[in-house]
UniProtKB/TrEMBL annotation:
UniProt KW keywords: Cell cycle, Cell division, Coiled coil, Cytoplasm
InterPro entries per record: DivIVA_domain, DivIVA_fam
Annotated stretches, region: Disordered: 149-171
Species the sequence originates in: Sporolactobacillus kofuensis
NCBIfam families on file: DivI1A_domain (TIGR03544)
Comp. bias (Polar residues): 152-171
Domain of life: Bacteria
Claim: Cytoplasm is one of the keywords in the record: yes
Phylogenetic lineage: Bacteria, Bacillati, Bacillota, Bacilli, Bacillales
The protein's name: DivIVA domain-containing protein
PANTHER family, per database record: CELL DIVISION PROTEIN DIVIVA
Similarity remark: Belongs to the DivIVA family.
Length: 171
């Protein structure tokens, strides 16, 4: 059990025949009481400082733990975001490739159709040209034939005023 300044102050010593000087002992005890009170006050102050320091340490330890957890969560979240971005990028690339393939296939199909149409039009143009050429040649043959000459009236008959031959040819 520790002594308190009050214990020291209230301590009574038994008196002997040739004991110590009472004033000297009291002065010394007063000095001890003062020093002891100072030590107790300093001890209490130091204990309070330790308590405050421990509270701060506990607070900062909690903050550190929270920050570490937050950092871990942020790292995990960043990794998740990165993975999701990579997946999305791959999906976009795949979709772009599919669209590119589709567009190329559509263009090739249109190109084939246009080529077929061109070939068909060339054939039709050749047929039309051949038919037109045959028609022209047939008309030229008709013009060159002797039948044409018989259809036209003689110039002498027309000059004489004979309308019979003209009427016959029109009928």
């Amino acid at each position: 059990m520790s002594l308190t300044p009050l214990d020291i102050h209230n301590k009574a010593f038994s008196r002997g025949f040739r004991g110590y000087d009472e004033d000297e002992v009291n002065d010394f005890l007063d000095q001890i009481i003062k020093d002891y009170e100072t030590l107790i006050r300093e001890k209490k102050d130091l204990e309070q400082q330790i308590k405050n320091s421990n509270e701060k340490l506990s607070h900062f330890s909690n903050i550190e733990t929270t920050l570490n957890k937050s950092i871990l969560v942020a790292q995990e979240t960043a990794e998740d975001v990165k993975q999701n971005a990579n997946k999305e990028a791959k999906l976009i690339v795949m979709e772009a490739k599919k669209n590119a393939d589709r567009i190329i296939n559509e263009a090739l199909e249109k190109s084939r159709k246009v080529t077929l149409n061109i070939e068909e039009l060339k054939k039709e143009a050749n047929v039309y040209r051949t038919r037109f050429q045959m028609l022209i040649e047939a008309q030229l043959e008709l013009l060159k034939s002797d039948d044409w000459k018989s259809m036209t009236p003689d110039t002498e008959t027309v000059e004489n005023g004979s309308d019979d031959s003209l009427a016959n040819t029109q009928a």
